[in-house]
Amino acid sequence: MAKRPILICGPCSAESEEQVFETAQKLKELVGLDYYRAGIWKPRTRPDSFEGVGEKGLAWMKQVQDELNIPVITEVANASHVETIAKYNFKAFWIGARTVANPFSVQEIADAAKGGDFKVFVKNPTNPDIDLWCGAIERFKKIGINEIIAVSRGFYPFAETKLRNLPCWEIPIELARRMPDIKIICDPSHIAGNTKYIAEIAQQALNLNMAGLMIESHCNPQQALSDNSQQLTPDEVQNLISSLKMKSSAINDQNIEMELESLRSKIDVLDYQLIDILKQRFAITNEIGKIKKSRNVAVLQIDRWKKVLESRSKYGEDLGLSRELIAALFSEIHKESIREQQMD
Ligand code: PEP
Ligand code: MN
Hints:
By secondary structure, this protein is α/β, with parallel strands linked by helices. Helices cover 51% and strands 10% of the residues. The longest helix is centred in the C-terminal third of the chain and has 41 residues, at 254-294.
């Protein structure tokens, strides 16, 4: 059976005692939560935006934890936040996308969290730098935090896109490869930026075997003081969850397993053939390099390169492959052959 994903829901920001409690109560009733989230100190891009209610919001969250029996979680950005949430009996916090990009802040938070028995959720930084993300996780590992969960919340798009942030799935996939012991969940709300794309992103995350979802939910999203276009009502969260197709990481059907195995073994053969062909290709570019050197001819022949790029991209496209993929592949190959020809 596919396991239900870890579910963390709640408003972008805690705004009032009523909003915090009512949203939590509805979510508990409709979907059941592993954690109830709300931002208390909000890292806003512009100075005059709503910057969170501060410490009084922690008391509202504690009320949810005590009376509704749902563990609560909020964002911390410095040591004093960690000390303050500890006073309100928080057992979990997350590091936001802006803070995670600053190793000084991450280290300060890790030092403050040492010995505090917290579960730590680490969002990816807004720039697609996997080392920063891994580095932050390592800082918490080093101070002895046992439960660290990575949160994939998308990356700054640098251009107009339908999504607020690009999922760049290859980055959490690489994180999973490098750190197989770290669970990864997805925050589709901050990727989507708009309620209409959340289901699509959440399903893609589950298809990639992510372990859970962090979803922003507000009992009255239009009135929300932050991120009002991406917050779902608790009813909408319930619809979303029931529409998701859960995936199991293990394949339990023997026939499917055998079929996949047979297809994978074909891929294995083709991959090694690709590498053999690359080896032959580089042997030829080395020959060319020697001739260029002996005749004092420039390594880079731009017209030839333009023809190679264009003809290969067109050939791939005619076969139904993506032009961008072929162009990217040949750019890498060309870069490497230029590099080799430069060497003595
Ligand atoms: C949030 O979860 O409300 C938040 C500010 O997220 P991020 O750090 O991913 O922007
Ligand atoms: Mn938000």
